[in-house]
């Protein structure tokens, strides 16, 4: 059985789809697949050396000009011939943005986004094409019940949708200790961030991420309590970056709010470990990985009770109404003012909860779905 895995749209392993692929590939060697199962990555020539595939997984570059129009044309008219030449029994797509209208072999698509929100902002023709392509696949894998329910809005067959929660790399995200945490400054080149601080890790891509509301709620918290805490907004710039920067400049506590811009994922553990807490006000999350990563490091979390966040964190967070800046400000104050014994219990419960999310389990469940679909090859 030969399975093709698409790397188009993975942004050299940096996008959400790319990180998902990297995590899956890391676990593959340790999993007993049973039978004769072979995996092969395919994508742009520029991605050839971006993934550690080992000896068991080959990378086959697709010979295309390096531009979006050529890739779009290939999915429309050339990909099925390529799949036939490679003798794939099934293909896995890690992004719904790149899908053929109809694939001649069984397919699995991984959807990690709240898709309806993004699709309804696209042109009608693009929206229709993606919805039609998704309706033709063998299985859609989603990271939460929330995303599965969201796909009902696209009138997709719910029986085709499998919920497989994303994992956490516990070799990277684990409780830290030692003298490094005693320092008053976190030195992560090129930044030096003074403690204490709260962290919100999310790309500034949408007003539903609630960066501006967090800035105002944090400012209110500072004004009411006089606490020395700072706010670190870590994440890549997006369509909403200017609006967030404007909100920061308008705050009387602008000097206590730090925008890092894009931050390499491997440096987040140090940012989390030294923080006083992780704040997550977004109301449009389909996964909630940043919250789980913080919890797995023993960091208490404050979250909007929206999207997939309650599903991801259980009863192990301080929740607030994502549309209320007053509730968010009060939640921050509550975290700072919690009795130490309450805080320790919150951390311990969060660690126990986060331990159930791991990439080995995610990979095993994903492979079971892929193999089941591949056996239905026409």
From TrEMBL:
Q: Write down the superkingdom of origin.
A: Bacteria
Asked if the keyword Transferase belongs to this entry, the reply reads yes
Q: Which GO terms describe its molecular function?
A: glycosyltransferase activity
Keywords of this protein's UniProt record, alphabetized? Transferase
Residue ranges constituting the Glycosyltransferase subfamily 4-like N-terminal domain according to the UniProt record: 20-171
Gene3D superfamilies the UniProt entry points to: Glycogen Phosphorylase B
Q: Does the keyword RNA-binding apply?
A: no
InterPro entries given in the database record:
Glyco_trans_4-like_N
Check the record and name the PANTHER family matching this protein: GLYCOSYLTRANSFERASE WBBK-RELATED
Q: What is this protein called?
A: Glycosyl transferase group 1
Task: Give the species.
Answer: Treponema saccharophilum DSM 2985
